[in-house]
């Protein structure tokens, strides 16, 4: 049954494609394909239900946490999961099988998110804010472990020209579940959702990581051939030298750093909605629904296109996000009547969700296809660490500028996105 469904989803009518994986791994592709898909569906649902750009921002505001703490959530969560990777990559490279690193990371994420649910039930104001920040830091560090190992495992178990579709189907299926969650929040908003409801939502989000860890442990992973010289090649400085010696990798990191507008602008759309429309809880439901529908509609398309040219997916997606940001800047700055229309912001978030999904899927597929073996761990760790540091700087600067003008932040980030679209288009194709 899995074999037939795998062939149907990937349009395989003849011999199975096993490009860039071993003969042993080829025999287990359908089973691993659906294990990865199902486990990632649960983590993506958990990500949405505890998203710092929407749900955590809403929660911290609900418990009256200081605004300066709320502004730190997105940079800490995103950069905290990236910066440590270059330091732990060497240790991971010494192990021939790595799925258990992912499982351990998922279990710690389960505990970290569950603690947030406990915090909002028992604490308020500044105390709640600091405790949530601490939980987000723990979550991010655990996420770095799972993120670093996941791409290597996909590279070992799923063949080229099938990885983009896997990511696309994963996001699409999780989008359906996200849509259901958004509808539930919309329904509860009619009866004034309480802090108990939001905390239970967080507890459910935490549970998704526990379920995912159990599923992921069933992956059939075969050992890597370890590099005998790994001790000489895996130190911190030698990894950073990749940026100097590997031109294609360096250009990818530059392009990726310019794609951050799709992630960094998202919370500002929520803030604009609260500023010009209000803080009614139905708006949170609308934002979550918009994200879910965007995933359902766009992910299969992005996945198929990524298997043909992942760098084009990056370029097209960030171009959409950038043009949207410029349009929003114009509306907020010059059209007072339009900026108070409540559906403008969920609609914009929907379009941004389509774009950000393409950016994420494109860059993840590109780096997996560009590298081979242990090189994947090095590429992922270096690029994520660099991007994490850039996120800390740009996130901090954006928070400062936003005190003066939120729409200016969106405009500046969108201009960088236009440059990122051009740099992504110049990258070489890596799918062959």
Describe this structure in words.
- This protein is an all-alpha fold and 432 residues long.
- Helices cover 78% and strands 0% of the residues.
- The chain has 21 helices and no strands.
- The chain has helices at 2-9, 23-26, 29-49, 55-62, 67-70, 73-80, 85-93, 99-122, 125-157, 163-189, 195-216, 230-233, 236-240, 242-245, 247-257, 261-264, 266-276, 281-334, 344-370, 374-402, 406-426.
- Helix 3 packs parallel to helix 10 and helix 7 (85-93) runs antiparallel to helix 20 (374-402).
- The longest helix has 54 residues, at 281-334.
- The model is unreliable at 228-233 (pLDDT under 50).
Structural class: mainly alpha
Proportion in helices? over 70%
Ranges where pLDDT stays below 50 over 5 or more residues in a row are: 228-233
Question: Rough shape?
Answer: globular
Order of helices and strands: HHHHHHHHHHHHHHHHHHHHH
Strand content: under 5%
Mean pLDDT comes to 82
Total helices: the number is: 21
DSSP E strands, number? 0
Describe the oligomeric state of these chains in a short phrase: single chain
Radius of gyration: 21 Å
Distance between the termini: 30 Å
Biggest sheet descriptor: none
């Amino acid at each position: 049954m899995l074999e037939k469904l795998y062939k149907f989803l990937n349009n395989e009518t003849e011999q199975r494609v096993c490009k860039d994986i071993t003969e042993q791994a080829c025999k287990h592709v359908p089973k691993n394909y659906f294990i990865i898909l199902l486990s990632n569906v649960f983590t993506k649902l958990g990500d949405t239900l505890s998203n710092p750009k929407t749900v955590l921002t809403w929660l911290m505001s609900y418990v009256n946490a200081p605004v300066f703490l709320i502004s730190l959530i997105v940079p800490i969560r995103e950069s905290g999961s990236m910066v440590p990777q270059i330091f732990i990559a060497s240790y991971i490279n010494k192990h021939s099988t790595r799925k258990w690193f992912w499982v351990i990371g998922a279990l710690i994420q389960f505990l970290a998110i569950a603690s947030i649910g406990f915090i909002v039930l028992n604490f308020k104001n500044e105390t709640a804010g600091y405790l949530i920040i601490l939980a987000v830091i723990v979550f991010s560090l655990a996420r770095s472990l799972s993120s670093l190992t996941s791409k290597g495992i996909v590279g070992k178990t799923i063949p080229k020209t099938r990885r983009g579709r896997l990511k696309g189907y994963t996001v699409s299926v999780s989008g359906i579940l996200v849509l259901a969650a958004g509808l539930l929040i919309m329904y509860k908003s009619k009866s004034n959702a309480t802090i108990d409801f939001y905390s239970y939502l967080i507890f459910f989000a935490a549970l998704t990581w526990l379920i995912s860890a159990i599923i992921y442990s069933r992956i059939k992973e075969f050992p890597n051939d370890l590099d005998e010289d790994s001790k000489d090649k895996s130190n911190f400085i030698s990894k950073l030298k990749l940026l100097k010696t590997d031109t294609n990798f360096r250009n990818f990191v530059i392009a990726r750093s310019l794609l951050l507008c799709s992630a960094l602008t998202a919370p500002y759309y929520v803030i604009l909605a609260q500023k010009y429309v209000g803080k009614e809880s139905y708006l949170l439901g609308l934002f979550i629904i918009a994200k879910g529908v965007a995933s359902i509609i766009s992910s299969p398309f992005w996945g198929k296109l990524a298997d043909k040219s992942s760098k084009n997916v990056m370029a097209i997606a960030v171009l959409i996000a950038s043009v949207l940001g410029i349009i929003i800047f114009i509306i907020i700055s010059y059209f007072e009547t339009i900026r108070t229309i409540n559906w403008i912001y969920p609609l914009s978030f929907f379009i941004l969700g389509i774009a950000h999904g393409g950016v994420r899927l494109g860059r993840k597929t590109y780096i997996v296809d560009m590298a081979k073996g242990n090189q994947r761990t090095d590429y992922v760790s270096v690029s994520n660490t660099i991007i994490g540091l850039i996120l800390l700087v740009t996130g901090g600067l954006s928070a400062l500028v936003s005190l003066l003008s939120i729409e200016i932040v969106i405009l500046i980030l969108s201009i960088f996105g236009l440059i990122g679209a051009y740099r992504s288009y110049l990258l070489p194709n890596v799918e062959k």
